[in-house]
Design brief:
Blueprint: E1 3-7, E2 15-17, E3 21-25, E4 28-33, E5 37-39, H1 41-49, E6 54-58, H2 59-71, H3 93-105, E7 106-109, E8 124-127, E9 132-136, E10 159-162, H4 166-181, H5 187-207, H6 212-231, H7 235-239, H8 249-266, H9 271-282, H10 293-296, H11 304-311, H12 313-324, H13 333-338, H14 359-373, H15 385-393, H16 401-420
Antiparallel strand pairs: 1-6, 2-5, 3-4, 7-10, 8-9, 8-10
Length: 421
């Protein structure tokens, strides 16, 4: 049988391959990935780690590969340097630095939590590719410069504030909390306030992870989320509406917590278990606090060295929590230590298989993968939920089948409800 070479860089991450791919070992060709399985970042990094830059397909596979290439022609990476920065915008070093400065100097906020007519004493900016532009604030050109306009909902760009103004934003959110807890208002507004307050807490935890006080605040966040969902099932969908246009660890952590709690409820966990699961889920990436933030937020594919650094965040999580003396429940460690494990044994850091992975680890593994793929990155558009679930479902050897079915049903149920709202 004849095998044809295919450059690894011609395969797009997070697509399903309609052909088998092989690696070459001396004079033998070995099946590496069966067709109809997704080509994930994990798969790519395995190739990078093994220094494999060429794969092989059969004659029949070559025909399917050519069809595949045409289907992703407009999506495939057009500029991938040795450092992994993606897209023409990052061709210049000064643009890379500009990206990091804009990212690190600002904090994303939700427009849903900005009440028309309310007063703000901090500047709010619209975030573009590498720059921000003043949208609202004490020095804007509005007739009433410190008042949120009535057309705030029509703003289509992500909104951010300067990091130095976070204390002022916290005061604004505290005032809203006090005001709207005493009067009837829309469920969406109430939950927007819950999300923003929760996100601020998670941010504090991840930036000062050794504080036992911050860990305690995490428990309060989880309890609030669980209470909201148990009180009214419709709240679950609104809690997921975090409008994050970029990948921020704290937004991701809050999403993973909410989705994990939702899946825990769908599988009939007791409230005490939901608390332990939710706390572990919200802290699952706490070890990233010990990883260079320029690697975590890099606008492109990680190098082999960078990827190995990121993988350390799992073990780092336990180190951080042990030093915080937070007395975290034992079960809450499972989401932290096992959210990258796979039933096939191909995960990390321990390579656990099957039942050796705790239920909480299996839940957060599905949820973490799902949320990571459905979040927009500066170098990669977000997958829609259907595409992401298809990718996960093609990896049945890696994820718990029953949990995956429950997860799909849960999201489908919530999607149906959202259409009626």
């Amino acid at each position: 049988m004849k095998y044809n070479p295919v450059p690894t860089e011609n395969l797009k991450v997070d697509t399903v391959l309609n052909f088998d791919i092989y690696t070459k070992h001396k004079d033998r060709f070995v099946l590496f990935r069966q067709k109809l399985h997704p080509f994930t970042e994990d798969v790519l990094y395995k190739l990078v780690e093994s220094k494999i830059d060429t794969l092989y397909v059969t004659k029949e596979g070559l025909i399917e590969f050519q069809k595949y290439s045409l289907s992703i022609k407009d999506k495939i990476r057009t500029d991938l340097t040795k450092e992994g920065f993606t897209g023409p915008i990052f061709n210049k070093p000064e643009n890379v630095e500009k990206y990091y400065k804009t990212f690190f100097d600002h904090y994303p906020i939700e427009k849903q939590a900005l009440i028309p007519g309310s007063k703000v004493n901090f500047n709010i900016y619209e975030k573009k590719d590498l720059d921000v532009e003043l949208y609202l604030g004490p020095f804007s050109l509005y007739d009433i410069p410190d008042t949120v306009p009535d057309d705030i909902s029509e703003c289509n760009l992500p909104l951010v504030i300067e990091k130095k103004d976070i204390p002022l934003y916290k005061e604004y959110m505290q005032d809203l909390t006090k005001k709207y807890s005493k009067q009837k208002t829309s469920r969406e507004l109430q939950l927007s306030i819950v999300r923003e307050n929760s996100k601020l807490v998670v941010k504090d935890v991840l930036e000062n992870p050794r504080s036992g006080k911050n860990i305690k605040k995490s428990s309060e966040v989880v309890e609030t989320l669980i209470g909201a969902v148990l009180y009214n099932d419709d709240n679950f969908y609104n809690l997921l509406k975090i409008t994050s246009y970029d990948y921020y660890t704290y937004s991701h952590s809050l999403n993973v917590c909410t989705l994990s709690v939702g899946l825990g409820i769908a599988t009939n966990l007791e409230k005490s278990d939901l608390m332990d699961l939710g706390l572990g889920a919200v802290l699952h990436d706490i070890g990233k606090s010990l990883v260079d933030p320029r690697i975590i937020t890099k606008p492109g594919r990680l190098t082999e060295k960078e990827y190995n650094e990121v993988k350390k965040h799992v073990i780092n999580g336990k180190v951080v929590l042990d030093k915080s003396h937070s007395q975290l429940p034992i079960k809450s460690y499972f989401p932290i230590l096992q959210h990258h494990e796979k039933l096939s044994g191909k995960g990390y850091p321990y390579g656990l298989k099957g039942e050796k992975i705790h239920l909480f680890g299996r839940i957060t593994a599905i949820v973490d993968f799902y949320d990571a793929l459905t979040t927009k990155r500066p170098y990669k558009n977000a997958n829609n939920p259907f595409e992401t679930l298809q990718l996960i479902s093609e990896c049945l050897e890696d994820y718990d089948t029953e949990l995956l079915k429950a997860f799909v049903m849960m999201l489908g149920h919530q999607a149906a409800k959202s259409e009626k709202q």
